[in-house]
Amino acid sequence: MTINKNKLTTSWGAPVGDNQNSMTAGSRGPTLIQDVHLLEKLAHFNRERVPERVVHAKGAGAHGYFEVTQDLTKYTKADFLSEVGKRTPMFIRFSTVAGENGSSDTVRDPRGFAVKFYTEEGNYDLVGNNTPVFFIRDAIKFPDFIHTQKRHPQTHLKNPNAVWDFWSLSPESLHQVTILMSDRGIPATLRHMHGFGSHTFKWVNAEGQGVWVKYHFKTEQGVQNLAPDVAAQLAGENPDYHTEDLFNAIDQGDFPAWKLCVQIMPLEDANTYRFDPFDVTKVWSQKDYPLIEVGRMVLDRNPDNYFAEVEQATFSPGTLVPGIEVSPDKMLQGRLFAYADAHRYRVGANHNSLPINRPKAEVNNYQRDGQMRSDNNGGSSVYYEPNSFSGPTETPHNKPASYEVSGAADSVAYDHDDHYTQAGDLYRLLSVEERERLVQTIVGAMKPVEKDEIKLRQIGHFYKADPEYGKGVAAGLGLSIPE
After folding, report:
1. Domain Catalase core, which positions (predicted)?
2. Under a CB-based contact definition with an 8 Å cutoff, are residues 243 and 251 in contact?
3. Do 296 and 67 meet the contact criterion of CB atoms below 8 Å apart?
4. Which of 124, 170, 267, 350 could form a disulfide with 321 if both were Cys (CB 3.0 to 4.6 A apart)?
5. Phi and psi for 223 in degrees, rounded to 5?
């Protein structure tokens, strides 16, 4: 039988006889409920949009590969890093953080940098940003922080009062605020920015020995940023500027690439380092722990369908492979639950069986049923464990390595509360012109804040990082440095 690929069918494959006119009782109607093709079209249309991500709603993505360039097997047994020259297919999603799905690409905002490696031992997700730090260091504050970045419940407008009130009451945010308000707050394109895993992770080698690790993706295109006036113009003229630039570059064969490097810290150093190495508002000095090259990431293929690949892609820092484990980072610990749970809500419990998320490795488990189950649901195989029917069983050698914990169960902060040294160091690294632009940007962002109390509290943080920093913002706002 010859199959006509141009024949229009219903979702269940039956041919459609009329796609221009609904079935009615006579030429004037009313419309008949028995027109199941009409009902299916309308019902599906109503459900074409899955709920957008609460954060990182606006994004762009691409396929590519990761190639190992240095042998680091003495640090990790991760299979995709096991030999120089080994290539692993991957998918990346770049995104803004706070805006909705239709917002502009060129707003001042961190950029999400989420990479999915389709390894032979299962998928590995590295879910980071284009900054090495974050605004907060405990996941319990995350919903409150994101609320400040969203819209006021009455006016439905962005609310600078909430933004700066939260930051001024959360001094740990100062390092990230300084980065955000600097020139790097608006990347020129998604290709011209670095990426970071941000959190501290743990690598474990074949002998069970571990090290702490931080990831750095260094753009081979060079770092370039947009001036605020140019970014504002683009936001009005072409709000999808970054999305378009990435697609066109790949489409024209100008494949963007990043070099992946890591910082490696011996486990015992975590107890003596001058900053808590698990605090995501802090960086490790590269003088103390130099960058070590791992490999190279190249993006060489655009998605065929945005919804199927970019919108339905799901990432979680808990999607790990043997040889890569988590750390006690309080923010990371919360994300291990929150990200996967967001996908179960937004896309469904079977999101990992969608083509864009499906691992190349064979999946064998006892998870069954649920919405959007697209495979054979385990067929007639055994569906519980332990069992006597040769079902899949655990492999003890793949258990995560243990690490020692101590102390009473309690709600406690990190031991280290120096939120000013690294922010001040960053400020002093900037050129005079960069400092001036940083202060101007902050002043412009803080002017709409209604309460001087909030402004003065934030100025105090800038001053503690560097007196010149605080004085510059205070002068711009017409305020005096608080006592």
Report:
1. 9-393
2. no
3. yes
4. 124
5. -80, 125
Residue ranges for the known binding site for heme are 339
**Rounded Cα–Cα distance for residues 302 and 53 (Å):** 21
- Hey, which residues does 263 pair with through a beta bridge? 214
Provide the token pair at 50.
Answer: 């899955």
The domain made up of 59-134+186-358 is a member of CATH 2.40.180.10: yes
Question: Which has the closest alpha carbon to 180: 144, 129, 215, 236?
Answer: 129
* Residue at 217: amino acid letter: F
For 275, the token pair is: 């900053």
Give one DSSP letter per residue of 283-307, joined into a string: ---TTTS--EEEEEEEEEE--S-HI
Q: Please tell me the distance from the alpha carbon of residue 322 to that of residue 286, in angstroms, as a whole number.
A: 27
Which tokens belong to 147?
Answer: 């609320």
What 3-state class would DSSP assign to 472?
helix
Q: How much is the pTM?
A: 0.93
Cβ atoms of 275 and 416 closer than 8 Å = yes
Q: Where are the domains of the chain?
A: 59-134+186-358, 421-477
In tens, the pLDDT along 318-344 reads 999 999 999 999 999 999 999 999 999
The burial of 26, by beta-carbon neighbours within 10 Å (0-12 exposed, 13-18 middle, 19 or more buried), is given as: exposed
Determine the distance from the C-alpha atom of residue 417 to the mean position of all C-alpha atoms in its chain, rounded to a whole number.
26
**Catalytic residue annotation:** 56, 129
**pLDDT tens-place string over residues 155-210:** 999 999 999 999 999 999 999 999 999 999 999 999 999 999 999 999 999 999 99
